[in-house]
Write a structure and sequence with these properties.
Layout: E1 9-12, E2 18-22, E3 25-29, H1 44-67, E4 73-81, E5 100-108, H2 113-126, H3 128-134
Antiparallel strand pairs: 1-2, 2-3, 4-5
Helix pairs in contact: 1-2
Length: about 150
């Protein structure tokens, strides 16, 4: 299969809010009021956590089917710790991103614990979002200036 390309495009609607579109979906990213936002959507790091949970959900069900068992329900909890000092320009002593991320899966299934251990190993290895969070991915950021020619 050839590469798939995913993208989001949008506009900053305030100093804390970005409204984007991916395919036919509108994404509102905002900060909570405690970080000077209007709290009209999840913030960027919450979207990362949600993306991780969503990816594990998809891969988890796919792998369960391949291993021959059914997941009746999959509860997923994901959290991460961030020190906001670098983000806020207070200090450069810590990195800006997550210090750690923890994801807990609680599947409702008749599969044995041995099967679930094997399942988890495969899910971890095949989840694209986990791969991006665990490994360096080349990222290129550019800026363009718009000019009004009259």
């Amino acid at each position: 299969m050839s590469d798939l390309k995913f993208s989001v495009a949008g506009v900053s609607t305030s100093a804390t809010q970005f409204v984007g579109k991916s395919r036919q979906f509108k994404l509102v990213i905002d900060e909570p009021e405690a970080l000077n936002g209007t709290d009209e959507g999840a913030n960027p790091v919450e979207y990362i956590l949600a993306g991780f949970a969503g990816c594990v959900n998809v891969v988890g069900h796919l792998v369960a089917k391949e291993l021959g068992f059914k997941i009746d329900k999959l509860n997923i909890e994901v959290s991460g710790d961030i020190n906001p000092d670098k983000f806020l320009g207070i200090s450069n002593n810590e990195r800006a991103g997550f210090k750690n991320i923890e994801l807990k899966l609680v599947p409702e299934t008749t599969a044995s614990i041995e099967t679930l251990v094997k399942w988890l190993e495969i899910v971890e290895a095949r989840c694209p979002v986990r791969d991006n969070l665990s490994n360096n991915t080349p990222v290129k950021i550019s800026v363009q200036k718009e000019y009004n020619l009259k």
